[in-house]
Amino acid sequence: MLVIGGRWQLDDLSTPGVLPRESAQRLAVRQIEASQLVGLDTAGAMLLLELIGKPDELPELVGMRPGDAELLKLVNQRLHQKKSPPKRRDHGWLTMFERTGAAVARAYQQGRLLLGFFGAVLETGLRVLLGRRRLRMTAAVHHMEQTGLDAVPIVCLLSFLIGAVVAYLGAIVLADFGASIFTVELVNFSFLREFGVLLTAILVAGRSGSAFTAEIGAMKSGQEIDAIRTLGLDPIELLVLPRMLALLIMMPVLSFLATLSGMLGGGLVGIIELDLSPGLYLTRMQETTELRHLWVGLIKAPVFAFLIAVVGCLEGLKVQGSAASVGQHTTSAVVQGIFLVIFVDALFAVFFMEIGL
Asked: Of 122, 297, 293, 311, which Cα lies nearest the Cα of 204?
């Protein structure tokens, strides 16, 4: 039996003769009598365990206060706890394949979620058409102003500049072949079929798609979405459909204005570089440009609008409740929106080429 008493604390370790030193002979102890123990801290507990040989199981504690006994057991448990070796970070092919697989799995889950949300939006829209749900026209008109009218200056300016750049490059390259006059067709065809609607969709995805995600995400983090559901209202009907309707209406209008602006920018550069009169330029454009190219471009506008609106609203509803989550999902909405727009535009280009449009 080992009998201990007094204070086994850090202040007493430096006092000679008060506590046994760590170099003392380790004792084979089966019982510790501590009725005279006044104080015990972590340093004293470690010294006591060192004195009795750091046993896997503590000896019987007689007369020790419950708090001191718990402290002694905790220190002994920590001394015998095995430290796990630090994980070695792999930088080889295995890690690359693991990350690739995780990314594919996340993309698959996001695709399933996106398709499910597409279906939910279409179902709600059908219920609105059948009169079973109510369309918030006031909210739709408000979003039409935000996503459409407010975006006209930036869309037209960007398209004008891109049109000027395309015409300038076309005039330089085609001049080597003596075909500078074909710059008119280059600018008109590119903006009627592709650039007008594509530039508009990319701008809208970065401007309005991110705004949809941030607005709905802020409502989600503020538990306003939960309050809407508690009141028996449908967030898709209340928040998603007005935004989607606004983009469906304003995207073709913005695409048409962007097409006109791009053709105007290309026309000005073409007239300056080719030394053509405005009348001759317009005549060439009228002779070589068909109206079907405009319809080919505008047909894609509602599809792009639907994709941008649904992706932006879905990412907003996925926000977890923090400012960091709002930022992450806003970035994700812009990236997904632009990717889907370009991917679907490529599919449209192949389809129209196959059918001869």
From this structure: 311
Q: Which helix (H) or strand (E) is 37 found in, with range? A: strand 31-40
For residue 167, the surrounding DSSP H or E stretch is: helix 152-175
**Dist CA 143 CA 183 (whole Å):** 38
* Separation CA 233–CA 217 (nearest Å): 18
In sequence order, the 6+-apart residues with CB closer than 8 A to the CB of 216 are 225, 239, 312, 313, 316, 317, 319
What are 295-314's pLDDT values in tens digits?
888 999 999 999 999 999 99
Q: Which helix (H) or strand (E) holds 40?
A: strand 31-40
Q: Which two tokens stand for residue 301?
A: 């506008």
Residues 70 and 139 in one domain: no
Torsion of CA 270, 276, 277, 283, to 10 degrees: -80
Quick one: pLDDT at residue 156?
93
Q: Residue 167: what are its φ and ψ, rounded to 5°? A: -65, -40
Number of domains in the chain: 2
Cβ contact 20:45 at 8 Å: no
* 74 and 114 fall within a common domain: no
Segments of 79-222 assigned E as strands = none
Whether residue 189 sits in one domain with residue 314: yes
101 in any annotated domain: no
Cβ atoms of 258 and 199 closer than 8 Å: yes
Q: What is the pLDDT of residue 24?
A: 45
What predicted TM-score, i.e. pTM, was given to this entire model? Answer: 0.70
pLDDT confidence of 87, banded at 50, 70, 90? low
More confident residue, 130 or 303: 303
Q: What is the DSSP string of 104-143?
A: HHHHHHHHHHHHHHHHHHHHHHHHHHTTSS---HHHHHHH
- How does pLDDT run across 146-196, given as a tens digit for each residue? 888 899 999 999 999 999 998 888 888 887 787 778 888 888 888 998 899
In which domain, by residue range, is 170 found? 109-355
